[in-house]
Amino acid sequence: MSTPPEPGEGRREPGPGAVLGERRQLINLGYRFLGSLSDAEDVVQETYARWYALSGEQRAAIASPGGWLTTVASRICLDVLGSARARRERYVGEWIPEPLPDRTEWIGGRRGDADADPADRVTLDESVQMAFLVLLESMTPAERVAFLLHDVFRYSFAEVAEIVGRSPAACRQLASTGRRRVAAARSTGAVPPAQHAEVVRRFRLAWEARDIGALIAVLDPEVRAVADGGGLASAVPHPVDGRESVARVLVDLANGVSATDDGPGVAFLERTVNGQPGLVAQWRGVTVAVLAFEVADDRISRIWAMRNPEKLRPWAV
Fold first, then answer.
1. pTM (2 decimals)?
2. CA distances from 92 to 88, 284, 306 (A)
3. Which end of the chain has fewer CB atoms within 10 angstroms, the N or the C?
4. Closest by alpha carbon to 123, among 102, 148, 105?
């Protein structure tokens, strides 16, 4: 009488291509979980380190390498999210998610590198728009992971439960809470991309002209502007509310740069930021700020300005 084979017995260890082919999915997942490309890359590196720490027999016994990698990466993200709250309490100034250029302009974290692996590109869609990423910051780590895994990445609640370490019913509730947060915060006056781009263009022209009146006209009365310098670049340390206040801060910034600049000055470039029209400010050819916008009812309602040079790495020329 023959002995029944053990699970995985006779199965070949997955080849490197099958495993490394999951990198794009893991980067996409990690970026949405953490709001940071560098943190997402660290998570993926740690995930692969754990995979290759397994023996060949252990790897061969895993029926779905992609599922294993996703589970491990998600659990690492949960741990990172737990510690991130403490880190951000010590962060200098406001913290906002790391902005990303359009996927046609960025490959593997380096623009213009034709030899980089296209699998490293982060897919840009509604779930990486800046407003969405900022909203995710209001969720608990468990809510965020359960909501993203189910509603964005389409994992079943049974699969989410295995990753989060809670019951499927609990994960369903976590995702539902996250969904309600999104529904409550979603702008009712969101505009089509072309209209969004036109509003951003009007903003750029008004800012370049230091025209406070024109800036006020393009800003929502309740606009809020948030800047992230991380203690490494000058930035207003707290959110600025109201269109008159925001307009004056913007003009003061432009005038301040002009007063100390003996070169060609600041250039404002219209670029895609997290899948939507945004602006890039370059001084002497170096990217010094990336701005993302939320537009509602033909006016800008939110401005997120990234000044932290560590978060501008994907924008380096």
1. 0.85
2. 8, 26, 13
3. N
4. 102
